[in-house]
Amino acid sequence: RGAHVASISAVKYAPNFGFIGLYIVKPAFRGQGLGFRLWEAALARLKGRCVGLDGVIEQQENYKKSGFRLAHRNIRYAGRARHEIPDPHIVPVKEIDIEALVEMDQQYFPAERRTFIKNWVSAKIGTTLVFYDGGKLLGYGTIRECAEGFKVGPLNAERPQVADVLLLGLMASVPEDSAVFLDLPEPNQNATALAGRFGMRPVFETARMYANGSPKLPLNNIYGITSFELG
After folding, report:
1. How does pLDDT run across 54-88, given as a tens digit for each residue?
2. Cis before residue 154, ω within 30 degrees of 0?
3. How many Å apart are CA 32 and CA 44, to the nearest integer?
4. What is the mean pLDDT of residues 131-138?
5. In what helix (H) or strand (E) does residue 136 lie, and over which residues does it extend?
6. Taking 90 as the threshold, does the pLDDT of residue 1 lie above it?
7. I need a labelling partner for 222 at 20 to 30 A (CA). Which of 59, 157, 158, 206 fits?
8. Rounded average pLDDT over 160-179
């Protein structure tokens, strides 16, 4: 009694966009309607918004019953960190104006998430690097420690070459040969090619689904989504 047996998150990023994640019920308590009650409460909290989620294969048909439609698949790739000499255009995020990063991030996400980004890139368990060339910000990425290895996300870049050197820089910031994971949108073929060049292989997938509309995002410039739980 008093134990947590189910969870869900419903993040209000903006008046027109929200994201659902962390939806899970302990196996012993499934089939009792607890998860569905949480689900309904989360949708009610985000009423009137376009809502996104990353659905596992087993639950995608259930999400469709609530009005969610497939936008694209996200594929998780796994590999090992390798160390090479970093590109001189790669600098730590603390060396740039954070507002420039917030402004760039708005190109790759359906809503402004200033508070989130400021906290995400300053977390002690992660490292954020940016690609700066001629006074222009061309890409950025974060790598953070997880229960197993390290996960890259977001990884956004205006050109494939920028994504390459950012990923190299991020890998160089963690112990060599550590497990590294990258969640990429399947429609971005350059991202798939990037994972291949780094010897990464697919290990998991989700469906990015939306209800109440679908945002238009530059998927060809998104090489790693922030997280399956938060969008």
Report:
1. 999 989 999 999 999 999 999 999 999 999 987 88
2. yes
3. 20
4. 91
5. strand 136-145
6. no
7. 59
8. 97
Q: Would you say 81 and 177 are in contact if contact means Cβ atoms under 8 Å apart? A: yes
Please give the model's pTM, rounded to 2 decimal places: 0.95
Give the span between the Cα atoms of 7 and 23, in whole angstroms: 5
User: Residue 117 gets which letter from DSSP?
Assistant: H
Distance, in Å, from the CA atom of 22 to the CA atom of 198, rounded to the nearest integer, reads 29
The bridge status of strand 90-92 relative to strand 69-80 is unpaired
Summarize pLDDT for 178-221 with one digit per residue, the tens. Answer: 999 999 999 999 999 999 999 999 999 999 999 999 999 999 99
The tokens for 28 are 């012993």
CA distances (Å), origin 185, targets 156, 160, 205: 11, 14, 10
29, 201, 222 from 196: Cα distances, Å = 40, 7, 16
Q: Is the dihedral of CA 25, 30, 36, 41 positive or negative?
A: negative
Q: Are 228 and 183 in contact (CB under 8 A)?
A: yes
